[in-house]
Amino acid sequence: MNTPATSPLAVTPSGRPRARALGIRLDGTPGPANALTDVPGVHIGYTTLVQGPSVRTGVTAVLPRGRAGVGLPCAAGRYSLNGNGEMTGSSWLDETGSLAGPVMITNTHAVGPVHRGVVDWTVANRPELARQWLLPVVAETWDGYLNDINGPHVRAEHAIAAIDSAAPGPVEEGCVGGGTGMNCYGFKGGSGTSSRVVEYGSDRYTVGAFVQANFGERRELVVAGVPVGERLTRDNPMEDTDWFAPGGAGSVIVVIGTDAPLLPGQCKALARRVPMGLARTGTTGSHFSGDIFLAFSTANAGALTSNFPQSPATDEDYDTLRHIPWGRIDPFYRATVQAVEEAVLNALVTAEETTGHNGRRSPAIPHDHLRALLTGEDFADD
Fold first, then answer.
1. pLDDT per residue over 36-45, tens digit each?
2. Which residues are the active-site residues?
3. Whole-prediction pTM
4. What residues contact residue 278 under an 8 Å CB cut-off, 6+ apart?
5. Nearest-5° angle of CA 64, CA 139, CA 102?
6. Are 316 and 70 in contact (CB under 8 A)?
7. 37 near 171, Cβ under 8 Å?
8. Which of 40, 124, 216, 311 is 20 to 30 A removed from 376 (C-alpha atoms)?
9. pLDDT of 198-232, one tens digit each?
10. How far apart are alpha carbons 338 and 208 in whole angstroms?
11. Are 222 and 282 in contact (CB under 8 A)?
């Protein structure tokens, strides 16, 4: 597939090259922005905090139905590959199979203020929802290598700003939002996204993935089926210095969205396929990595509600769910795996070298060397 250099498939809104700009061959057909926002109605917003020598963090907001749709449930399911992490609100999500608010992603020690920020935003913008109860979904990965994670730098207003900035269309990637201080395979990592189009009879559906990538050892890295990590061994500060954390520590959060009509259990089944996409990039899954995934469907608007009843039930008080038959769900599994793989690569390729807390440095993946390894060209090792 020839991708024009100015296409959203090739570059981020700020002009950072994405994986396809490097000629990396990837399976499947992406949507127009190659992003989770290709799913109609999905908005993504960021607050990025880069302050002084030690603050490298932020907040990401994923709004399945945009700001206007907060409170309108989506079918949803989640899966934890390794539970060394946090996703608040998951007990209620498991109970009801629905998601009615934003999905927020930040650093491990900022879950509290981001949770408060979602409550404050809802009180100000949707007071009728706040009069009942709120169980915000806030997930995290650990950015303490580059960021002063123990400082009170992320505040409720930063979560509010991320929600207010959320928009459809092409999405910035790399060192932005909750991904600002994250690392992936010993390189600078962060935020990444991708999408796939699924043909279903005369219908076209989209499956999109968003990752906050903060996982993997350098030696594990695989790109488009080529094991490149063993050839990119030099300039690896996280392993070549006295940094104390073992390789592969950190975590990864993945959000999958689709406009295909799915049951909550089918959403969970999509979330269970996320590790296959991650494994295509080489990871074996570290004990010290919280790998937690959520999938939602924006179809069936108006179903799966859990509001307080205001009157006795009538003969019309039923929810109806239209859904893809289980026997025809495989193309959506395939799209999930493909989108997750590319989202991780986009997070890696778009991220810029970053120096942060205590002078620690995280290098960007070297584009020229990566191209050479993928094409078999002669290139001196780093």
1. 999 999 999 9
2. 251, 289, 291
3. 0.97
4. 215, 252, 254, 285, 291, 340, 341, 344
5. 25
6. no
7. yes
8. 216
9. 999 999 999 999 999 999 999 999 999 999 999 99
10. 10
11. yes
